[in-house]
Amino acid sequence: MNLPAYFVASILGLLFGSFLNVVIYRLPREESIVTPGSHCPHCNTPLTAGELIPVISYLIQKGRCKTCDAQISSRYPLVELATALFVTFQFHYLGPSLPFLFFGSMTLILVAMTMIDYDLQIIPDELNVLLLVLGVVYLLAVRLPEVGLRGLLPNLVGFLVGGGLFLLIAVLSGGGMGGGDVKLMAVMGLWFGWKLLLVLMFLSFISGAVISLFLLATKIKGRKDAIPFGPFIALAAYLTSIYGPSILAWYPYL
Ligand SMILES: [Zn+2]
């Protein structure tokens, strides 16, 4: 175990998580994610450098704004902690490598997508486009030198299968699956190739079924509430980036 590397990975995860909180709030509202700097949502006082320290500042201030004493949602530090946890766990499996750089970035985008889809039942096109561009760069910079141009064919097939199959599901389900989900599955197909995409789809349906049943059984969600599917695709993509190849190895005929 290379402890300093894990430490750096988790600190970076916290800092990126703090930035994701800004993205999650501002992107769907079409506000700039750069200016103005972060401010208290209640009294609009700009946050000082000290108040921007992820998690710690929240704990020191006991979850309240220093200026107006308003309660700050615990979701901000939770998103920071979750991001750090996801990235560090992924680092453990992928190591200090180019794939980690790309899949770690994918994880950050997926965290933002998950929260926005959970809040508003939309997946912003900007995030899908960002994933698409990042995926193309990943294929050209990492995969192409390893597998050659022909070796990228499964990724093209994955793009078409992912988009096509989910478009069909979206049409058949009559609105249960949205356009954002269709685009996300196409982009995931491109990243992973069609074989790992099958693993991803399987994991997304399983986690979707289990978690939805849990939400209904515990009455957190009612029968008529919409449960967005984007977060399950995101969770499945994250798991596939780590366990996908080992799961695929159970099916040698694929
Ligand atoms: Zn305030």
Helices and strands in order, then pairings?
Elements: H1 3-26, H2 56-60, H3 75-94, H4 98-120, H5 125-147, H6 153-173, H7 179-217, H8 230-248
Helix pairs in contact: 1-3, 1-4, 3-4, 4-5, 4-8, 5-7, 6-7, 7-8
The structure holds zinc ion.
What's the number of helices? 8
Structural class: mainly alpha
> Mind describing the biggest β-sheet?
none
Taking all residues together, what is the mean pLDDT? Answer: 94
Percentage of residues in strands: under 5%
Bound molecules: zinc ion
| Helix fraction bin | 55-70%
Written as H for each helix and E for each strand, in order along the chain, the element string is HHHHHHHH
Tell me the number of structural domains: 2
Task: Specify Rg, calculated over alpha carbons.
Answer: 19 Å
What is the general shape? globular
Note the quaternary state here: single chain
Number of strands: 0
Distance between the termini: 34 Å
In terms of per-residue confidence, which ranges show pLDDT below 50 for 5 or more consecutive residues?
A: none
